[in-house]
Every structure is written in structure tokens, then in C-alpha cells.
Write a structure and sequence with these properties.
Blueprint lengths: L2 E9 L2 E5 L7 E4 L2 H21 L10 H5 L2 H8 L3 E6 L16 H14 L3 H12 L5
Antiparallel strand pairs: 1-2, 1-4, 2-3
Helix pairs in contact: 4-5
Length: 136
């Protein structure tokens, strides 16, 4: 999975995220977790928009390379932080997957899916969409 480094800045209640490799790709949120979720959406939208426009997509730089960038280094000294954000694309094409899970975990998944009015597959997809962006 491709990941881009994000620069997080702000304070409680107002966090902003920029991607040094992707000019103009930004996100915001009241919490860091919300900002990161929005960042994953912004990343996907930015990449898809650039592809539709026929632009070349910049490859993500390594964390060590970005730390040496003067603008990133300056932001870090002023309290900003770095995070790794995955590029998660939705194709709209379901694919079957065979998973082995503990029976108790599977029962809990099924119960929560029913409680939310979802299928097992929809619930697991929802969990992945919520969790993947937070896994730096």
C-alpha cells in the first residue's frame, strides 16, 4: 500500500494537515484522528483528480528525506508532527475474501453489524476505512 507523509499542525480543536509531496493537498479536523481520516480522503481525491487531469503523480518521499526539507524541518521545530497516511482507493468492485477469525470475534462482528443494520462485509469494510488511516 502506498503511503504519503503528512505534516500535522494545530492545536486542540483545530488541526491541519498538508502533504509535502502533493502541493495543495490538505485536510483539517477538530481532533488529530479526524484530521487523519479527512487526510486519507483528501489524498485519494487529490491523486484521482491529478490522474484525471493527466498529471504525473509524485512518488512519496521517504520520511528521512522529508525531515531534511527546510520547510518541513522548520515546521517540526515549531511543534508540527509527521504521520504516514495510506492511499486507499475504492474501485466499486467487490472481491470475495476468505478470512479465518476466532469464533468469538466473528460473533461480535456479526452482532455489531446487525445492530448497525449492516452486513458482515459492510461492517468489516467500515472498520477498515476507519482504522487504516490511523495506522501510521
Amino acid at each position: 500500500m502506498t503511503r504519503y507523509v503528512a505534516l500535522i499542525d494545530g492545536k486542540k480543536g483545530a488541526y491541519g494537515i498538508v502533504f509535502p509531496d502533493l502541493p495543495g493537498c490538505t485536510a483539517m479536523g477538530a481532533t488529530i484522528e479526524t484530521a487523519l481520516a479527512h487526510a486519507a480522503e483528501s489524498l485519494r481525491d487529490w491523486i484521482e483528480g491529478a490522474e484525471e487531469a493527466g498529471e504525473t503523480i509524485p512518488a512519496p518521499h521517504a520520511l528521512e528525506v522529508l525531515r531534511r526539507d527546510p520547510e518541513v524541518a522548520a515546521a517540526l521545530t515549531q511543534g508540527a508532527a509527521l504521520a504516514s497516511v495510506p492511499l486507499i482507493r475504492e474501485t466499486g468492485r467487490p472481491t470475495k475474501a476468505n478470512l479465518s477469525l476466532d469464533s468469538g470475534i466473528l460473533r461480535a462482528i456479526d452482532e455489531e453489524a446487525v445492530r448497525r443494520g449492516l452486513t458482515r462485509s459492510n461492517f468489516v469494510e467500515l472498520l477498515a476505512k476507519e482504522t487504516l488511516p490511523k495506522m501510521g
